[in-house]
Amino acid sequence: MKNILDTRIMTVDLEPDLRSKNCKSIELVLPKLLEFFDQQNIKATFFTVTSLLEKYESEIKEIAKKHEIASHSHTHSWLNKNNAEYEISQSKKILEEHNLKCFGFRAPKFITTKNHFSLLRKYNYQYDSSFTNKTFQINTINNISSFRFPSPSSGLSYRKLLHPISKFFPQSKLFYLHPWEFLKKSDLPKATSLTPLLLKRNSGKKAWNLFQNIILRHPHKWISCKEYLTIINNK
Ligand SMILES: [Zn+2]
């Protein structure tokens, strides 16, 4: 059994670029990211917006050869009481129709509804990695608050935004990033409000350097959510 203290969980949200309909990051960034993961022997969970399968089936199947694919909803709409069941069920159905096993879910913008866990149970998910109770966690469905992770250090978005102060953030158990964070500013869609504008800070090459520093400085074993749960459950 691997030593659980040495392992970290790598997660990627595979979605259109910065709240737009563009997907330049899938063409321009994804191959480079997969190559880097290969070089560093990193296994990740790709929380995937499943409507992307229409256009990017071969890319997503390529990811699935080495990494875990999980659901990041079907359309990346923020969940509410009207759409949550559709987004949770449809994404799993689409993945399974493409012969991709799906165990986990992460809500867009980490926003969940009151019946989030009962919906996940209903559609046979095994874990959730959404932002709840102001902490990041991988929740096993039956044991909801087992694994909690501090938030600001968990995401490349925060590290970019708060660079260079973020250098001093502690390393968290789980890390998440979006391929579009590595796009050059000129390849990113125009920001129409303040949040996307802030999210553009330190994009492109700077984001790569930040991310590579985090990985290369700390020689952890990076694994997927599913692998992590397997270790936990076999303990
Ligand atoms: Zn997202």
Measured on Cα atoms, how large is the radius of gyration?
17 Å
CATH fold call: TIM Barrel
Number of folding domains?
Answer: 1
| CATH superfamily grouping | Glycoside hydrolase/deacetylase
* Alpha-carbon distance between the two ends: 8 Å
Largest sheet: 5 strands, parallel
Output the structural class. Answer: alpha/beta
Q: What is the CATH C level class, in words?
A: Alpha Beta
Residue fraction in strands: 15-25%
Helical residues, percent: 25-40%
Principal-axis shape: globular
* DSSP summary, beta strand count: 10
Note the total helix count. 9
> Which segments are poorly predicted (pLDDT under 50) over 5 or more consecutive residues?
143-150
Write the H/E string, N to C: EHHEHEHEHEEEEHEHHEH
Bound molecules: zinc ion
CATH architecture: Alpha-Beta Barrel
Task: Name the descriptors.
235 residues, alpha/beta, TIM Barrel, 5-stranded parallel β-sheet, 9 helices, globular, binds zinc ion
Notes on the structure:
The protein is α/β, with parallel strands linked by helices. It has a single domain, classed as Alpha-Beta Barrel (TIM Barrel), CATH 3.20.20.370. It is built from 9 helices and 10 strands. The strands form 2 sheets. Strands 1, 2, 3, 9 and 10 form a 5-stranded parallel β-sheet that branches. Strands 4, 5, 6, 7 and 8 form a 5-stranded mixed β-sheet that branches. The N and C termini lie close together (8 Å). Mean pLDDT is 86; it is low at 143-150. The structure holds zinc ion. The site of zinc ion (ZN) has 5 residues, from loops.
